[in-house]
Specification:
alpha/beta, 3 strands, flat
Length: about 70
């Protein structure tokens, strides 16, 4: 149901927990990945997301760029 890309793996894991709580812990599918850095997410994220194109079960997309000391 959800595809999540995040700057880091810890961001992805945190978002999975948040999404499950917002969905009242219903059994839902959350796929995605943390890319280890903003640069990697920007360079590889679109290709990763395109791999889910046309799959009807994924209806929601979340892109997470955390705010740290780098702008």
């Amino acid at each position: 149901m959800y595809v999540v890309i995040a700057e880091d793996t810890s961001d992805f894991e945190c978002l999975k927990i948040l999404i499950k709580r917002l969905e009242n812990n219903k059994p839902i599918t959350i796929e995605g990945k943390g890319f280890g850095s903003c640069g990697n997410m920007m360079n590889k994220g679109a290709k990763f997301l395109n791999s889910y194109n046309g799959q009807d079960k994924y209806r929601k997309l979340i892109i997470c760029h955390d705010r740290d000391q780098n702008s």
